[in-house]
Fold:
Amino acid sequence: MLQMTGITKVFPGVRALDGVDFRLLPGEVHALMGENGAGKSTLIKVLTGVHTADSGEVRLGGVPVAIGSPKQAQEAGISTVYQEVNLCPNLSVAENVFIGREPRGLGGIRWREMRRRAGELLARFQLDIDPAAPLASYSLAVRQLVAIVRAVDISAKVLVLDEPTSSLDRDEVARLFALMRRLRDEGVAVLFVSHFLEQVFEISDRMTVLRNGRLVGEYATAELSRVELVGHMTGRVLRTLEELHAPREDVREEIASREPVLAARGLGRKGGIAPFDLEVHPGEVVGFAGLLGSGRTEAARLMFGADAADNGTLEVGGSSSALRTPGAAIGRGVAFCPEDRKTEGLVEDLTVGENIVLALQASRGWLRPLSASRRAELVGQYIKALSINPPDPDIPVRNLSGGNQQKVLLARWLITQPRLLILDEPTRGVDVGAKAEIQKLVVSLAGDGMGVVFISAELEEVLRISHKIEVLRDREVIAELANESDVTPERLLEIIANGVAR
Amino acid sequence: MKALTKHRLFWPAAILVVMLLANVIVTPTFFRIELKNGHLYGSLIDIMLYGAPLILIALGMTMVIATGGIDLSVGATVAISGALACSIIAEQPDQEAVGGVLTAVAFALGLSLVLGLWNGLLVARIGIQPIVATLILMVAGRGVAQLITDGQIITINSEPYELIGGGYLFGFPFAVLVVAVVVAGTAVLIRRTALGLLLEAVGGNAEASRLVGIRARRLLVLAYVFCAFCAGIAGLMISSNIRAADGNNAGLWIELDAILAVVIGGTSLMGGRFSLAGTVLGALIIQTLSTTIYTTGVPPQVTLVFKALVVTAVCLIQSPAFRAKVFRRRRPTGPASPAPAEAEVAA
Structure:
């Protein structure tokens, strides 16, 4: 279907792609794998006409094609759905599907026919969506499905999905995969990019691995193990993840006997999270396990004062305190890395260094600025400690990769030397290497006596580093488990699915 | 050379230089500065003198725009400040008394601070959109100024007051010295404290700023108060220069010139990153343009069209996207880069 040979793309100072070959067969789901910076996005951008390759050839159905713009790519039959869905929430589903190519007749757009055709199209993919309803009334996941339907309806040879699952929960991912399989069976070549290894193994037929802008190889998914894949991606046998073991029982008990750094009693907020009790001790990692929308983020925000609780009390460092604002929480040594880096974490206009010192400077107030030398020293120290790459404090933070942006946020809070660090999905959208580094960092911070709340949708990750685990479902904390050897991802899933056997 | 064109003040500075050179071609004596009676005279001095109010207002506007807001009420504040100062002086038994003038100045600036506080509270406390919140004072403020002057144009005859907008000190126009002090003071306030960083954070991402514990409300109020304070000083200058308070026409439409100056100076209306030096350059560009129109004798009926054309050209030259399109030379693989900095490297 699609064949790219010898694709090379050079940016000032970087050889982003170096003679990469890539092929896509009709009727397959093909995963493009690699760490951040391996060249995945560049390859996709060459394919979709955002960038033009410096050299190399693209053939579509055996015929050489020149793809100079996204429009040309679309005309050639290559459609892309990006992570951030580019649709208009204020328009109806049908309008979104047909925007720019509405069925017209005498006297303008034929609305009824448009709705009917949209209905047929959705029914063909067995999607139960009302074409007349405004898109805004549907979840992000459904909007993504609508975007895919639209893309396929426009031109249906090659469909590129760039990180489509990063903000979906398990059910929604299953729905997306069902749609992808149906498209594959109709002969569409689907190119899939994701950081979730499990999903890649579940959905893809074959995969291509890139590393540092070069092709590592092309593999059939069924013949590749996870360890082999990670090895191909990182270029080394990865042990860091296995080095971290769930903590031993005597350690857990010793930690639990310490004075809690934070104690919540009956803390809750209507429409956010039902009242819950929680103690976090110094040196303890508390994992929050639960699906997206289960109330994990809501609980964390109450503990940080980002939202005001309407129930219960909160004790920080032994004294009871109503944390009405984030400022109050920070003053008591609580830090919070929010889930959504772009909208709630980074100030993208500012440089790496400025982002790093922001929380510390905010707590000092604007009248007591950090001296330039002190600031340079602190920033340099944390850039080095967290190996933020590139190690330049003066470039805009928007130019960094996802993993490095996450490290910038971590640095921002570590610099304030908090007693309690709340991390909401710190490893989402982060490549395997950075993920392992962040996990190791969390463990070592706890080892130094910091209390950590660790929120993640990846149960394996929660199990690997937590001392105890809070299980959430439907905006309620339904179980608290000590992380013993009999706690497995399967058992957590079962609790999430069925509740606790009492 | 590349590093030079990449600097974010390069284009505003280049435009200003080109405008000044164009003036020299038309008027060869344009750069001449003379010393008469110990006072400096010349076109360049005039530009700075008449541009002084605009520079001040644009400076305040920069702070507000950095927070992601806008202040449409500065023109009204100019009128109110001038009206109050002039009416106080007019009621003095001796208009020449320095004490009376100082009282008038203090009351006018004090009222300006109150007006800024009003704007700031509407925006930060009540949460009205800045453009709407300041529109209230923009419209109502002219009425307030009329109220203060009883609907009259109050003329005064006070030498100490005339110093502010038309007098000289150490050979320099007093207004230019005031601007220099305010600009320098602001620069110190912004870059020696953390105020600039925090303002840019709030303007760049309000929610993220809240979550790092920045108390944005205070900063917002501060920005509007500062902006009104600058407008208040500008109001004193303008009324002092014409020796009268005109509630209807003082500072009319100056808010639009100020916003334009900020934008030409390279600060985005979206908020976030701002540049004080850029704003000063922007205000000087606008004033130079006005002066050019008078000195080169553009017919009065086409001055507005001429100004509009030049401003459009200036804005286009400033735009990296436009430059990339026009000045593209042999760039076969030009990446449609989202970062303007990269586009400038290539341009």
